[in-house]
Structure prediction request, 338 residues.
Amino acid sequence: MAAGLLLEIRRGTQSALLVIREADPPSSPVDVSVAADRVEVKSGGSCEAVTLPPEVRLAPSSCRGLRRLPGDGLHLRMCLSCPPPGADLVSTWRESLKPQKNYVFYCQSCGDVIVKDRKLLRVLPLPSENWSALVEEWCCHPNPFARSTLHPQHGDCFLGETFFLINSGSESHVPEFPTCCSETGHHTSQSHSNLKSKENTRVVCKRCKTMLGETVSSDTIKYYVTEVIIQPSNGSFSPKPRSQFIQSMVAQCLVELSSAKSTFRFTLKGDNGKIFILIWLLNSDTLLVESSGSSSSHGVFTPFGDIFMPSSGPVRTWNAVKVLYQPCIKSRNKELHF
Prediction:
């Protein structure tokens, strides 16, 4: 038996859900033993013992609700014998940018330099989406901002919810702007014309051709936070696995937006504005510890398999957000209203 184990801890309730994942349905009874610092699973002649990180201690007498879910494994709920560690205060990408400092912009996918040694004179947050529509509710006269645009000047960096704007007038390295080519050669359709215009504004990395953002005006570029890494000029670039980076950025955005807008429902849209996935944020106070399982008799909990865990070093828990998602696939979920 090579069982994978997942421990999902909730800070708010000081409770935990232990999931014992099975590669194959067991042919013999499974015996689960829970100690304060250890979980042991026996089946047939095999035994797998997993040691918990030192900051996690279980209350064995509180175990309840053991059940097996087909395709998932054994589920067992319990309480913690001591409060879990608090969340690490890690600065978000919005908090890490400071004015009067020099930064280098890198392509997250390949590490190529996008903007060299840019000094940010001002770092300012942009108003939330649809802010101009709300102005009409506040003013008793016509919207005074109707004809104004929020475009950064030289040295400015404007921070949006999932993007940032910079002035491209003095870039040391300007990404290439690909030319859109039509397969049919006809441009009479209005929708095709709009698509062509949209594609012509895309900003892509010269090395790996990944889409990094889009041009907003002749001197303003919008970069997506999931595609660009910004680091101080005096620092060194340390690439992160793509999956780890995307999960971290999406989690940051969900938590920030949920707190700012008091909502737990979100949508992901494509370039054409079409919604392709619905997301519900269930909680953001979760700690996860995971063991992928092995054929050896002893193992140690490792979070998220090999993706987040370094090859060496102490075992520790990881902050996580828990979401429910629903893909919006053609001919499915037509009854969903978001």
The two ends are 43 Å apart (CA to CA). The longest helix spans residues 242-261.
